[in-house]
């Protein structure tokens, strides 16, 4: 029995094991204090999911509004280009018609003089 520890040595090892066990249990308790309960985790997760869904709908609404704004702007540009083209044609006719009337009256005057 020379390999067997003595009673005093066994007592010291048991004491050391108890101290180690108490230290580890203290660490475990401190770690468990930091853990969130399942109810709180479920509520928090549900809230985060609801908030994400709300943010996604806000993002979609903003994207739709942006698309509508871009479409409206493109329509405005087309309308403005058409208005400018119409205005250009009006100015052209306003310049051409008086010139044609002047030429017509000059031609009538020349014809009246030649016809006499």
Q: What is the topological layout?
A:
Elements (H helix, E strand, L loop, with lengths): L6 H28 L3 H78 L1
Task: Provide a descriptive summary of the structure in words.
- It is a single chain.
- The chain is mainly α and 116 residues long.
- Helix content is 91%, strand content 0%.
- The chain has helices at residues 7-34, 38-115.
- The N and C termini lie far apart (161 Å).
- The model has no long low-confidence stretch (mean pLDDT 90).
Q: Provide the residue-averaged pLDDT.
A: 90
Q: Please state the CA-atom Rg, rounded to the nearest Å.
A: 48 Å
How many E strands?
A: 0
- Assembly state of the chains shown: single chain
Ends apart, CA distance between termini? 161 Å
Overall, the morphology is rod-shaped
Q: How many H/I helices?
A: 2
Low-confidence stretches: none
Major sheet characteristics: none
Helical proportion, percent range? over 70%
Label the structural class.
mainly alpha
Strand content: under 5%
- How do the helices and strands follow one another from N- to C-terminus? HH
Jot down its keywords.
mainly alpha; 116 residues; 91% helix; 2 helices
In summary, what is this structure?
The chain is mainly alpha-helical and about 120 residues long.
């Amino acid at each position: 029995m020379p390999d067997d520890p003595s009673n005093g040595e066994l007592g010291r090892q048991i004491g050391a094991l108890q101290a180690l066990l108490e230290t580890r249990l203290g660490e475990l308790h401190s770690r468990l204090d930091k853990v969130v309960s399942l109810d709180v985790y479920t509520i928090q997760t549900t809230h985060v999911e609801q908030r994400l869904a709300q943010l996604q709908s806000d993002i979609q609404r903003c994207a739709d509004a942006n698309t509508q704004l871009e479409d409206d702007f493109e329509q405005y540009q087309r309308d403005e280009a058409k208005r400018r083209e119409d205005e250009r044609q009006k100015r052209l006719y306003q310049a051409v018609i008086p010139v044609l009337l002047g030429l017509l009256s000059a031609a009538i005057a020349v014809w009246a003089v030649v016809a006499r």
